[in-house]
Structures are given as C-alpha cells and as structure tokens.
Amino acid sequence: MIRRARRQRGLSQEALAFKVGLHPTNLSKLERAHFTPNSALLLALMRELKLGPTALLPILGGVPDRRAAVEIELATLASTLTDEGLEIALEQVKALERLGKTGVKHRSAGGSRGKK
C-alpha cells in the first residue's frame, strides 16, 4: 500500500522518509510490513501520500480498536484546523480531562448529570 502510493507520487524511499521524519531503512521495513507505525507516523504518511484516514489501516491489521480509530480521526481533524482553532480544541480537550479527574461524567441520553 505505502510503496504503491509512494511510487504513484513519484517519491523515492529516501524522499518520503525525510518528509515524515523516518530513517529510510525503517520506511523499507514498513513497506514490507516488518515495522508497525505509531499514530503520528500514520498521520504524516497520510498527509504526504494524500491518503484518506482509513487508507493505511490494513498496516495495523485492519480495523483498529475504538480508541485507535478515534485518535486517528481526531488527528486527521486537528490537521485541518487553523492555529487558533487548534488552540481552542486543545483547551476543550483539557477541560474534558479536568472533568474526568473530578469524577463528573458526561450527560447521558436523558440529559441528567451525576457521578458514578
């Protein structure tokens, strides 16, 4: 998948590796499925190869678990935001984290709030 997309874009392994911050040897391993990328590397590859957010999921063995899918979607959305929008999103995530630490749970479908 990566090799094909890289070649379609006319990129050498060295050029793509440089663009995504990876050693060419590791890119070669990735193309041969001997290396599993983290979510940051997946996002960088998707950007450079102009692939959709689910195009590289087969590298991870198909459909990721729910958390991984959400992280990929969040990273994809974050990459489209302006600097200001990204800062606002970060503050919102931090607020959610603070709520989680205080034990306040999100609203249920019925709209009630409470602690579990």
Characterization of this structure:
There is one protein chain. The chain is mainly alpha-helical. It has one domain: 434 Repressor (Amino-terminal Domain) (Orthogonal Bundle). The protein contains 6 helices and no strands. The N and C termini lie far apart (45 Å). Residues 107-116 have low confidence and may be disordered.
Q: How is the topology of this model organized?
A:
Layout: H1 2-8, H2 13-20, H3 24-31, H4 39-49, H5 66-78, H6 83-102
Could you name the CATH class?
Mainly Alpha
CATH topology: 434 Repressor (Amino-terminal Domain)
* CATH H-level superfamily title: lambda repressor-like DNA-binding domains
Low-confidence stretches: 107-116
Please give the domain count. Answer: 1
Radius of gyration: 18 Å
Features:
single chain; 116 residues; mainly alpha; 58% helix; 0% strand; disordered C terminus
In short:
With 116 residues, the protein is mainly α. It has a single domain, classed as 434 Repressor (Amino-terminal Domain).
